[in-house]
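anyone else get weird line breaks when pasting these?? whatever heres mine. first is seq + tokens for prot A
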Amino acid sequence: MLPRGRPDVFDVFTILAGGFSHVPAWSWTFRSATQPSSHKSSPEEKRIQWADGFVLVYSICDRASFNSLRPKVQVIKAAKEGPSQEKVPIVIVGNKRDLHHRRAVSSEEGRLLARSMDCEFYEVSAAEAYHGAVMVFHGLAERISEAKLALKKGNGIRSIVKSVSAVFARKRTDSM
């Protein structure tokens, strides 16, 4: 059920570490990676900046949906990672696993793309059971937690280095 006032937002609940975590999620169509942005901060870029992680879904029966993933990952990484080089959690999901007889994209192709783009990979059937979707969001939540922890650790080390550098810089100017 969509919340009122925000027609493009839906809420996802997933079980994490024995408790519940609320994960707001957006669903939208990307502009082509080759299309230039009409202005510096498009709605798409604002959504990318807002998000902590991404789930990109393609149909295993649709080669075009699979082929659109690489540019989407590149757009996300360009907007999100930037000069800070922080790693953004992205999960690539092949859906419609139950339609293996109509498969146009192999599992191996999905795995290779995910590995080459430094993303997680899952192949699920949303039609058969919800367990696959739970695994996807649980995996994404774990990657987001790891990324936030790494960022905190990095900031802690940076602040220590800055403090130590400031102390030595002060001593150097005091002794001159």
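and prot B, same format (seq, then tokens)
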Amino acid sequence: MLTDVCFTSIGWFIARVICYLSNFAMELEASASSVQRDQREKCNHCKNKIKGDILAHYRGHLSNVLTKTKNLDKEFLETDNNLQQYKADVKQKEKQLKRKRKELEDQEQILDIDKTTLAEFEADNLQDHQDYNKCQENVVLLRDAITKYREID
């Protein structure tokens, strides 16, 4: 019985030592692998050594990328809205220009008509002036003729 107790307590002791050693070995292996991982793992994005959890490191990068993407989406929407507003303004300006062009063309046609009318009026006026001058000459000739006729009588 004493031998049973001795073997049992030695067994417990050995079991505890084995447990302790296996835990120590796992901790040593974990720390060794983390040291190796720290030494060999470099981030492709920031070129720094990754310390600690690799997933957490890349989640940080992903979070930054998502934030930048959201900001870019906002900038894109603002730019798109500005572009749409600019296009609407351009269309409105084009409509105004078409209206102005039409008004100017109408005014040019009226001006051409006025120029033609003015030229016709000037030609008529010149003709009237020439006719008036002829009439004046005729009046002078008639007066001279009347004066000569009276002198003869």
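btw re prot B: Confidence is low (pLDDT under 50) at residues 1-7. Residues 1-40 form one domain.
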